[in-house]
Design brief:
The chain is about 45% helix and about 15% strand. With about 270 residues, the protein is of the alpha+beta class. It has two domains: about 10-80, Winged helix-like DNA-binding domain superfamily/Winged helix DNA-binding domain (Arc Repressor Mutant, subunit A, Orthogonal Bundle); about 90-265, GAF domain (Beta-Lactamase).
């Protein structure tokens, strides 16, 4: 359950088909999610925009400080994006409610704790409390991972009915990150049925070899937000027995976050 680049980067430019704002946001996603700065020709090949239109759109984003160009003419996220992201993270009420519970869970387990929210077919990680061990997780707040092969993602999906899960993942290519990654929706639904019965999910080296986690679902009172909390660590240290030992702690943390969310934010009126 590490935070790698989304595998849908190449599809971003084809997702939003109408509206100027949608096209600009697609370009922002394309550049921001790329593994390295992109040249104009790279963006052109992925965006499905005419050359002249793309040039104008990129110029607008540059003028607003949302993109920058390095000395080699490659595009990368602008400083203004970082500022906006920092403010959004600092003011996020869900993260603020969850933070003390994340820290308590980390103290009890000693391993890295993550908080993520389900967005479409991906999990966006909102917060992280680093473990105390010498070998730690390489992960970044704000990155996205596929829901079908991560503990937080599968936990969040387990709150949905099977038809909702199938509809959400319709058309998704199940990339085989490891030998343990689900290959199709049918296998995932079998896993999700077990997650519903026990109340927590495992990621046993499904997203990255050598990484395991246990996660529990979080949902808002109105059901509009699906999220999860997890404890993650290297497989050589985080055994199946450890995951089972931590499962009640993760479930308790998720329940406490949901209760505090209700107390602080109240039901949606």
């Amino acid at each position: 359950m590490t935070m790698k680049q989304s595998d849908s980067v190449g599809d971003v430019g084809r997702v939003r088909e109408t509206g100027t704002l949608g096209k600009l946001m697609a370009l922002l996603d394309l550049v921001a999610l790329a593994d390295r700065p992109m040249r104009f020709t790279d963006i052109l090949s992925l965006s499905d925009q005419p050359r002249g239109t793309l040039h104008r759109q990129l110029s607008h984003l540059l003028e607003e400080g949302l993109l920058e160009v390095d000395r080699d003419g490659r595009y990368l996220p602008g400083i203004r994006l970082l500022s906006l992201a920092s403010r959004s993270w600092a003011r996020n009420e869900f993260r603020a409610v969850a933070e003390p519970h994340l820290r308590l869970l980390q103290e009890k387990t000693g391993e890295t704790v993550h908080l993520g929210v389900l967005r479409g077919t991906e999990v966006i990680y909102l917060d992280k409390v680093e473990g105390r061990q010498s070998v730690r997780m390489y992960s970044q707040i704000g990155n996205a991972s596929p829901a079908y092969c991560t503990g937080v993602g599968k936990a969040a999906l387990s709150v949905l009915d099977d038809p909702d899960v199938e509809a959400r993942l319709a058309g998704v290519a199940f990339h085989p990150y490891t030998d343990h990654t689900h290959r199709d929706v049918a296998g995932l639904l079998t896993d999700i049925a077990a997650i519903r019965r026990r109340g927590y999910a495992f990621d046993r080296e499904e997203h990255e070899s050598g990484i395991c986690c246990v996660a529990a679902p979080i949902r808002s009172e109105d059901g509009n937000m699906l999220a999860g909390v997890s404890v993650t660590g290297p497989a050589f240290r985080v055994t199946s027995e450890k995951l089972q030992e931590w499962a009640p702690l993760v479930r308790a943390a998720a329940a406490a976050i949901m209760q505090d969310m209700h107390n602080r934010l109240g039901p949606k009126r």
